Amino acid sequence: MVPLVGLCVVGAFHRADTAIPPGFAGRHVSVSLPAPGGEVPLRVHQAGNGRDVLLIHGSPGSVEDWEPVMSAMDGTFHLTAYDRPGHGFSGDTGAYSLEHNAQVAIALIDALKLEHVVVVGHSYGGATALAMALHGPPAVDAYVIIDSATYTPSRKADFTLRILDVPLLGYGLGTIGAGWMAPKKIRKGLIDVFGGRTPPEDFVTLRTRIWSSPKVTHAIAEETLGAEEELRSLSGRYRSIQSPVYIVAEADSEFRRHTAARLHGEIEGSSLELLPGAGHYLQFEKTAEVVATIRRAAAEH
Question: What is the CATH number of the domain that holds 147?
Fold first, then answer.
């Protein structure tokens, strides 16, 4: 009992850290959201000139998840990547649903005055993009969905995530356990999503640093626990999407392959590309193919 009380006390003093450390790209843009969001500072990184492309990362994730795409497309497109609320160095709105994240993305488009946007979402960001498409924001012309779980979650909520979701206790555990618990869990998770291949050490080190904060671990828990019900509700409306949708998924995962094929079958006029020899982070392992799909979406719409 005493250790639990101590963790709750630690959690009560938790405050989300939004400071962008030296050496990290981006700036804060304040976005106005309907309740319960209010004003939230989002870390935004923009580069290049030309057609607007909005890049939405997964869960967990950050601006850094788009580095290969931004490097490959800089100069020919105006690229905007951002840390979703509760992730990276953005503020935390206290809301974690796909619908809320869709509202955040639409509000950011408005705040930055982006036009004729191609929205690109990876993983949870892809499901967020589909939630956006159901709203049909006029500033968005097309959507690219990269390796997203769009019907059932790819990650199951384990005991640790359920504890991290508990108010105060979760933040306390995230604060105390960040140094010894998170690195091992993050490394294993990254190896799993890279198809059993060990990603570069700097890739792991950077994400361990960003993903280990109590703010992020709590957001991951919330998003994971809510995903099944949210996707069930969201997926029942996919057939009504009228916007152009381009689906890219890994070919070697039965779950990802079948999910992508089902989505392609339900969204009229969508395109599907399955990429072999890669894991979940297609934008890193299949950068040229992902970039080609984004360019195609922009050219065709």
Answer: 3.40.50.1820
How many domains, the chain? 1
Report d(CA 154, CA 227) in Å as an integer.
9
Contact (CB, 8 A) for 218 and 174: yes
Q: Which residues contact 59 (CB under 8 A, 6 or more apart)?
A: 84, 87, 123, 124, 219, 220, 223, 224
Task: Please give the backbone phi and psi of residue 249, each rounded to the nearest 5 degrees, phi first.
Answer: -150, 160
Model pLDDT, residue 186: 86
Q: Give the span between the Cα atoms of 141 and 143, in whole angstroms.
A: 7
117 alpha carbon, distance to own chain's centre: 18
User: H helices of 178-212, where?
Assistant: 182-193, 201-211
What is the percent of the chain where pLDDT is above 70? 85
For 13, 30, 33, 177, 186, the CA distances from 170, given in Å and listed in that order, are: 12, 27, 25, 10, 17
**What DSSP character marks residue 116?**
S
DSSP H or E segment with residue 226? helix 214-235
Residue closest to 219 by CA, chosen among 100, 94, 121, 103: 94
What is the C-alpha to C-alpha distance for residues 62 and 153, in angstroms, rounded to an integer? 20
* Residue pair 90/42 in contact by the 8 Å Cβ criterion: yes
pLDDT, tens digit, 9 for 90 and up, residues 151-172: 999 877 664 655 655 564 455 4
Tell me which H or E stretch contains 53. strand 51-56
Domain of 275, in residue numbers: 2-300
